[in-house]
Amino acid sequence: MTILPAHVKYVLLILLSFYTTLSHQASSPPNPRLQKAYFALQAWKHSIKSDPQGFTSNWYGYNVCNYTGVFCAPSLDDPHVTTVAGIDLNHANISGSLPEDVGLLTDLALFHINSNRFCGTVPKSFNKLGLLYELDISNNRFSGNFPSVVLSLSSLKFLDIRFNQFKGDVPSKLYDLKLDAIFINNNLFDTSFPKNLGNSPVSVVVFANNNIKGSLPSSIKNMGGTLDEIILMNVGLSGCLTPDIGSLKKLTVFDVSYNSLVGMLPESIGEMKSLEQLNVAHNKFSGEIPSSICSLPRLENFTYSDNYFCGAPKSCLKLADKDDRQNCIPERPAQRQVAECKAFYSRPVNCLDCSPPPPPPPPTKHWLPPSKY
Description:
Blueprint: H1 6-27, H2 32-46, E1 48-50, E2 70-74, E3 82-88, E4 95-96, E5 110-112, E6 117-120, E7 134-136, E8 141-145, E9 158-160, E10 165-168, E11 181-183, E12 188-192, E13 204-206, E14 211-213, E15 229-231, E16 238-239, E17 253-255, E18 260-263, E19 277-279, E20 284-288, H3 291-294, E21 301-303, E22 308-311, E23 321-323, H4 338-345
């Protein structure tokens, strides 16, 4: 029998103690909430098909707070209890899906997985995430109808589902939520703007590159107290811009380019004193651009190319960044052919015709009593 030196016995004793401690930690979760988080994250890891950058390579063991992309914080209802408060796997290029078990992460405030290759749908179990404040699943491969489970998230303020393959209708209830930002652009939605659009208290809303046909409802004027940016590029808008647009006093960015809007730009746009960027290009606007628009104090960029405007004030030429090409504005370069402009104005134009105003009616003949002579 070999007798080990005393110092070797001491080292072995320390190592044995160390591994026993690790084994105990690995088999005993710190608290029940982190135990649920462990089950949720393990189920999610097993649904991942590819993780080329190894974001989830250290997702093992009960110490979930050490997982890459997992952030822990004291619970809101008990500061002595640690919980998983955030997930951030942005730009990880992970492919897979979201299992229903993710709903076990009931203390989540942030869920960010943009720029990956996740597919499928958003689990219905997300309705258990009552503390979720930010949901960003943008730039993935999610599909199906609008993820209506988000409508039940009472704490949600930031919704970003852009650059996916969602389709169909966008529920009108979305605009009744107390959201601060809505990004649903670059999907396959086929819908129209509901009358309650103006109920939304958002500061930023981006609808671009969907099929949200029709015209803006007059209720948009109710967003004047909060709305800072609205992007409606290439959504199938038609008809005329409502003069109620001028009620959006805090708006800094207004983009309705690449649509089928007609008529004249409302004079009320000149009342939007905070406006910095205005893009109405690639529509069928006509008439003269109101001088009040180009005199807006903060306006830096005004793009109105590819329309049928027949006049623009000189103040528009003083803007640092402008584009007036492909219109019908006399003495400006790169305009439409004269014949094309004449053909356009020979047809009735909704909201405004650029032809000279009709002559005043003849004076009304007032009735006089018959002359006795």
